[in-house]
Amino acid sequence: MAIVVGNEVTQMREESGMASIFDRIGGSDAVAAVVNEFYTRVVADPMLRGYFADVDMAKLKAHQRSFVAAALGGPQEYRGKSMDEAHAGLGITAEEFDQVVFHLAGALESCGVDAETIGSIAGALAPLKEQVVQSAVAA
Ligand code: HEM
């Protein structure tokens, strides 16, 4: 599958001549820390926790680590479901999507990622809204 967000981040990096965001934030250890912190926040949030009640969190975290790593320009490929497939039928709203991005930003911040990098990541995730939110109008 094509990872839109990964392509955009990679393109941004190539144009700017910068190291990948993946490298800048500290590679796979940093991604694992961010993903753990992210799901701690998500399942603590009454707006979101219901979605994850019957989900195998260890498996989900593993997929999310590889998705985030690939999206940030890391070396390995993401081999999980497409964003359409992963979220089909869940009925996720635009508000819930924004809340998930908010928790991801919070997790990145608490792991020491700078505000500018967080802005780039959040901006790169915005186009996924259409795939995650089924009835979403393009953001
Ligand atoms: C930027 C936004 C998002 C990204 C990048 C993302 C990414 C992912 C990834 C990589 C998976 C694993 C796919 C697989 O198993 O192969 C997944 C699954 C899942 N996501 Fe998301 N997600 C996003 C937003 C959301 C939102 C807003 C919700 C709910 C409010 C949500 C709920 C879920 C659930 C419940 C699963 C597990 C589905 C299952 O195993 O049956 N996600 N997501």
UniProtKB/TrEMBL annotation:
Keywords attached to this entry: Heme, Iron, Metal-binding, Oxygen transport, Transport
Keyword field contains Membrane: no
Keyword Metal-binding found: yes
Top-level division of the source organism's lineage: Bacteria
Cofactor field: heme
Signal sequence extent: none
Entry's family note: Belongs to the truncated hemoglobin family. Group I subfamily.
Protein name: Group 1 truncated hemoglobin
Organism of derivation: Microbispora siamensis
